[in-house]
Amino acid sequence: RPRVLSGIQPTADSFHLGNYLGALRNWVPLQDTHDAFYCVVDLHAITIPQDPAVLRRRTRVSAAQLLAIGLDPERSTLFVQSHVPEHAQLAWVMNCLTGFGEAGRMTQFKDKSGKQGADSTSVGLFTYPILQAADILLYQADAVPVGEDQRQHLELTRDLAQRFNHRYGQTFTVPAPHIIKDTAKITDLQEPTAKMSKSASSPNGIIELLETPSRSGKKIKSAVTDTGRDIVFDPENKPGIANLLTIYSALTGRTIEDLTGAYDGKGYGDLKKDLAAVVVDFVTPIQERTKTYLDDPAQLDKVLAAGAEKAREVSAATLATVYDRIGFLAGK
Ligand code: TYM
Questions:
Q1: Stretch (H or E) spanning 39
Q2: Which first-to-last residue range defines the signal peptide (predicted)?
Q3: Mean pLDDT, to the nearest integer, of 84-100?
Q4: Is residue 24 within 8 Å of residue 68, measured between CB atoms?
Q5: Full DSSP string of 214-237
Q6: Does residue 183 contact residue 250 with C-beta atoms inside 8 Å?
Q7: ipTM (interface pTM)
Q8: How many other C-beta atoms lie within 10 A of the C-beta of residue 212?
């Protein structure tokens, strides 16, 4: 079976709808068609300062949410990145294969570091995409289900795989991004041309899976739209309405045409009110299941430990080959 690998950072107390619609919902069906590896990338999280207790809590909350949306440890391998030491080890090798200028061209780094001075930006943030490449290449992933914002990191990953293969002989599968176009970029409810993001300027722009339904409802009702009144799908001129329709369509399975037909002659308020109800129906069972997993942290930790063990079977084999190809002496 072809392989997939993807990861998500434990940097918030809840995932948001952008994470879910852009990436996570694709992880679930891939469990049945692919050999699937999914990780909570805590090594990536510390590229910006983290409070230890908060990081620990968020790592468990992240794993619990992944189980709650339908990841099944029997059908996929769910693990925490720091439990598998090969990620950091391969990242070092990849660091030594990446040009300084090449890493400097990563737009996410430029966006994130631009907000701070050079001395408060960590070197880890700079090499972040190289660690991501290691995550993917360790598992010989054929495809990587992510949102649009990860495309450039995937390009770097492909370049590094090809570079290594060219220099040391065929070693890595060159992975392809697996991006679902319709929901590849869910936008901020307050700023509908920017992507919905944990680091958004206003918390009202993001819908969190674990926030109270009344809070989500308020955010949807106050979503920025436009001065028109027609409910049509026009991302260029009506990005707010287009985003609401995209979310509505993805959560219900109804096509955009069906929705614009159904709301013909109705107002923005009707659309928002109905979407708020759709979101409540969607998040309520996820919240209940997440809580159940969090109520038994020992069991959750056991699931993650078993996942790490399965992951290591693959990652250790890849790293051993890499070390050998590079010319490191066999240590035993
Ligand atoms: P992260 O944790 O920022 O986001 C997790 C996933 O959510 C997607 N996403 C979105 N999709 C659509 N619309 C949005 N507004 C939106 N916001 C976030 C992201 O594209 C991502 O797929 N670098 C990765 C984590 C990572 C990784 C990996 C991913 C580390 N190693 C290996 C794939 C493979 C990241 O920061 O994701």
A1: strand 35-40
A2: none
A3: 98
A4: no
A5: HHHHHHHHT----S-------TTT
A6: yes
A7: 0.99
A8: 12
